[in-house]
Write a structure and sequence with these properties.
The structure holds two protein chains of two kinds.
Chain A (H helix, E strand, L loop, with lengths): L1 H13 L4 H25 L8 H12 L11 H34 L1 H16 L6 H8 L3 H25 L3 H9 L4 H37 L6 H10 L3 H29 L1 H11 L1
Helix pairs in contact in A: 3-11, 4-5, 4-7, 4-9, 4-10, 6-7, 7-9, 8-9, 9-10, 9-11, 10-11
Chain B lengths: L1 H6 L2 H16 L2 H28 L11 H11 L3 H34 L1 H14 L8 H8 L3 H25 L3 H9 L4 H38 L6 H11 L3 H30 L9
Helix pairs in contact in B: 4-12, 5-8, 5-10, 5-11, 6-8, 7-8, 8-10, 9-10, 10-11, 10-12, 11-12
Classes of the chains: A mainly alpha, B mainly alpha.
Chain lengths: 281, 286
């Protein structure tokens, strides 16, 4: 026993990386990869893969050299980048609210859950992109259709995770609310929702990153603006540098969205994290 | 444990836990009958509502065909050789894509997971690349590779390799060092330690990664087929049925079949995972 303990000690310490391992090493790898790409693009230029330095410069010029009264955003950026961002965020919000409401209902009522289960399982198994033509048929080609498509696509992640979170609440907690004679709404808002929140965030995280994907997919068909439209558009015109700039913008949006949600999660679930740490140590 | 929380969606664990709990409470068979009865009732309610709304003309049947007609049409499609060819193309791209992504993801994941420094460096890189939407590269790949199988495979592999790579890295990294050292002290070679200790220990997490990747892969295959002009496959079938204007019912039938395909993939992957790794405390009954 003691031998194992001694042998394991240094390994356990290395599970908690220092700043070198946590930040310096990844940054180093990324810089090396970018340099290799740059080198390859200079030695053997290919129209398909412009050098990263040129992509960065082009993206900066395309998106962030606008007039100061527009926060330096160019008209191109406002017309397409912000449009996509809005579609993504509104769709995400809408889908999350609907998903959370249905999820809470399905978590609390066994009857509702068991009746809807096959339908929900089937609907969420449909690869969401396959339903885009249907959305176009039913809702036309405007913003409403795209927002509805994004909302539909992300709803399932929130629904499933909320339902599981609600079901995992200890019955005593809900009974306590009842014996304090809290109203049904009050019970849901102040007991069910907070208790299900950690699990809900797991769903929200997937929903946020997929909402960007679905917003882009929706702009691949019958669109007149948006990042997805611009990607197709620049492809059709063989404007590779612009195309890579849009891809870079998308990557940055994806990353920022992820970071923001993690910050929100850390703030909202502060009580939960603390609780868990105390429990572990 | 925190490692696991990051790698897998909490969904499955909760579901399995619940299943295990209720199985011990009520007789399994009675419970199953109730689930089936209620599920069938749910499906029937939905089907009847759609049928009535459509037949009574509350919504233009052009936009919402009766449920029964859609089902009949979907069955009839299986007699259409052109459609079957497209469906086969979709399934082939999906299977090949997930196979390549698995080999790549598991191979690289083991490589990155074995060394501490490499693990932390690559984890940072993977976490940076992962949130980037893979659909962004579809237009570029179409331009370079055309609209055939190789184009689909590149996009599918790029999109679905991340969960596999990520989970393999975590799984390998999380192997109890005492187990590795014990195998070493019994005189096993490094390769044998990887084959006999590390891969089996990481296998449940790898399987979860492959399952998550498979649903991503199916979405991506269909997306690519939707937007690549002239591609074949289920996505192309749905897109062209919409474009032709007359085939709304084909759009519904196509989506119904896409859903069946998705359901088949999900159920197969979940069943395999349960069968092979049901023993595992982390993926199975917890």
């Amino acid at each position: 026993m003691t031998a194992t303990a001694v042998a394991r000690k240094p390994r356990i310490a290395s599970h908690r990386p220092g700043w070198v391992r946590r930040y310096a090493a990844p940054v180093f790898v990324i810089v090396v990869l970018l340099l290799l790409w740059e080198l390859a693009a200079t030695v053997a230029p290919s129209p398909f893969f412009p050098a990263p330095s040129r992509i960065f410069v082009s993206a900066w010029k395309m998106f962030f050299t606008g007039p100061p009264e527009h926060l330096f955003l160019t008209p191109l950026m406002i017309e397409n980048g912000l449009t996509t961002l809005l579609r993504m965020l509104i769709g995400f919000a809408l889908g999350s609210v609907v998903g959370a409401i249905l999820g809470i209902w399905s978590g609390l009522s066994q009857l509702f859950r068991e009746v809807t289960n096959p339908v929900v399982e089937f609907l969420r198994s449909i690869p969401a992109s396959a339903t885009l033509p249907l959305f176009i048929i039913l809702l036309g080609g405007d913003d409403g259709m795209r927002i509805a498509f994004v909302a539909y696509g992300v709803l399932w992640f929130v629904l499933i995770n909320t339902a599981l979170g609600v079901q995992s609440i200890h019955p005593t907690q809900i009974m306590m609310g009842r014996s304090f004679r809290l109203s049904r709404l009050r019970q849901i808002l102040s007991i069910v929702l907070p208790a299900a929140l950690p699990q809900m965030f797991a769903g929200l995280r997937i929903a946020l990153s997929t909402s960007l994907i679905f917003a882009i997919i929706s702009e691949f068909m019958v669109a007149t603006n948006g990042i997805g439209y611009e990607l197709i558009n620049t492809q059709a015109r063989f404007q590779f540098l612009s195309m890579w700039s849009w891809m870079l913008l998308l990557a940055v949006i994806g990353l920022l969205a992820n970071v923001l949600l993690e910050l929100v999660e850390a703030r909202v679930l502060r009580w939960h994290r603390l609780f868990r740490n105390v429990g572990n140590e | 444990m925190s490692v696991l929380n990051q790698t897998r969606p909490e969904t499955e664990r909760g579901r399995d836990a619940r299943r295990a709990r209720s199985a011990s409470r009520a007789p399994a068979r009675a419970r199953r009958t109730r689930l089936v009865v209620r599920g069938v009732i749910g499906v029937l309610i939905l089907a009847v509502i759609i049928e009535i709304v459509s037949r009574a003309g509350l919504v233009d049947p052009q936009f919402l065909p009766p449920f029964s007609s859609v089902v009949v049409q979907a069955v009839l499609l299986f007699g259409d050789l052109g459609f079957l060819g497209g469906l086969a193309a979709t399934i082939l791209s999906f299977l090949l894509g997930i196979a390549i992504a698995s080999v790549l993801g598991v191979g690289l994941g083991i490589l990155f997971g074995l060394s501490q420094t490499v693990y932390f460096a690559m984890r940072g890189v993977v976490e940076l690349i992962r949130p980037m939407p893979p659909v962004a590269m579809i237009p570029l790949v179409i331009l370079i590779l055309g609209n055939g199988l190789s184009m689909k495979l590149v996009v599918v592999v790029f999109a679905s390799v991340w969960p596999i790579l990520f989970n393999t890295m975590y799984g390998v990294h999380a192997v109890d060092p005492a187990q590795r050292e014990m195998a070493r002290s019994f005189g096993k070679s490094r390769a044998a330690v990887i084959g006999r200790v590390i891969i089996p220990a990481a296998a449940p997490l790898i399987a979860t990664g492959i399952r998550i990747a498979s649903s991503i892969a199916l979405i991506i295959v269909i997306t690519v087929e939707l937007i690549a002009g002239g591609a074949d496959g289920l996505g192309a079938f749905i897109a062209s049925s919409r474009a032709s204007g007359t085939g709304v019912i084909y759009v519904y039938a196509g989506i119904l079949i896409a859903g069946m395909l998705g359901l088949a993939v999900n159920l197969t992957m979940a069943a395999l995972e349960r069968r092979w790794f049901g023993w595992n405390a982390q993926t199975g009954v917890k």
